[in-house]
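Troubleshooting log. The previous structure file for this entry was overwritten by mistake, so regenerating from the original sequence record. Sequence copied from the archived sheet and checked twice against the printout by T.R.
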Amino acid sequence: MSMLNVEHARDSAERIWEDEIVPQLTEYIRIPNKSPSFDPAWNEHGHMERAVALIERWCRAQPIPGLRVEVLRLPNRTPLIFMEIPASADQSQGKAEGIEDTVLLYGHLDKQPEFTGWREGLGPWTPVREGDRLYGRGGADDGYSSFAALTALRLLSEQKVPHARCVVVIEASEESGSHDLPAYIETLGNRIGQPSLVICLDSGCGNYEQLWSTTSLRGYIGGTLTVRVLTEGVHSGSASGIVPSTFRIARQLLSRIEDEKTGRVLLDALYTEIPQARRAQAEAVANVLGDEVWTQFPWAEGAHAVTNDRAEALLAHTWAPALSVTGAAGLPPLENAGNVLRPVTQLKLSMRIPPRVDPTSALRALRSELERDPPYGAQVRLEAESGASGWSAPETAPWLTHAMDEASLAFFGKPSLAMGEGGTIPFMAMLGEKFPKAQFVITGVLGPQSNAHGPNEFLHLPTAKKVSCAVASILAAHATR
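Regenerated output below.
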């Protein structure tokens, strides 16, 4: 075990979270600082600046020796909080060497939009604490990250436990694909240095009983599919049977890219070979989670999963492409749906792609299949969004495997587990390419029912506290590896 005193760290984290962080997170949840993709006028509305100011204020007040907090604002981009913490005295062996041995900690403060379906008494901008859960948009994804990162460093400082130089990056465009982040990383290049360890606090956990690390992330492509056959709507009694339905054409087009009976994506360009190590991880996680692989979701009565093979379900979730239709336009609400043959149907398509699949090539294949030879000569167009690459972690160094297990046993009482995630964190692919020699700890608090992006999102507070302690333990182990 590292030199970190477990009981002292646990008690201190409990006090810091309850007395200082929970009140701040409560106020943070109230701020509708939606990511730029969902609030193009974010700068005029000022919500992002309020969130930045709240987090900046708390961070600046932390009793961490040498802590420097800076808010960077590049033109026409969302702000970024950048923090530097020098290596502890016994870890600094000259300026150049100290900069080379750096740990980079990452999180974000922008949020997903409101979504519908919040249960009575809850809402996206209404913080509510019920026992161990703090409900509200952005608490778990990813408002907690700034607080957890500095709490970990504060625990080390309190116990005078050595640590390497650390930098903390908190961005504000992650939910929009991190489109502003590359410019900041380029600007900060010399100040970041060459991290030997990257800790990302924006991922999930299979349960709340142990420390989880993410070993792969899927990428993303998508956009808006538009199908048009008329210049304006006409009476369905006059035109149906002569004029084809744009909805029916859209159904045909979707069948080109997805088997509607199984959900299997039909484009070979969107697949890659699954490494044997990832298959073994899926088997191990399936054995631990059991039916929670699927029971974690809020099923309607009678509905069930695509497969009853737990490991295959996990692999489909992490290493296979999957299509979701996440929005539609051209369809009036039910109360206004008259007998009209609509001129246009638009569908928002979200396609998750496996790690190691190039998003540019994947998008090219998707667009080609949807736009070729349109039925009835309809106008068909896929207006693409910027894609994002997936990521697969390099082989974990023995010291880090040992450190994560020790941290999990110390603060959760069980060994750590690793698995892939079905979501996308664009920052990870960027860092994996930029820092190929770095080790990675991708972890987080998004466990069963936490429901990031959907209704009733909550932060599981005991897990947030334990993750803070676990990160401190890993930083201590990194310093003495």
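The chain is about 35% helix and 20% strand. Archived copy saved in two places this time.
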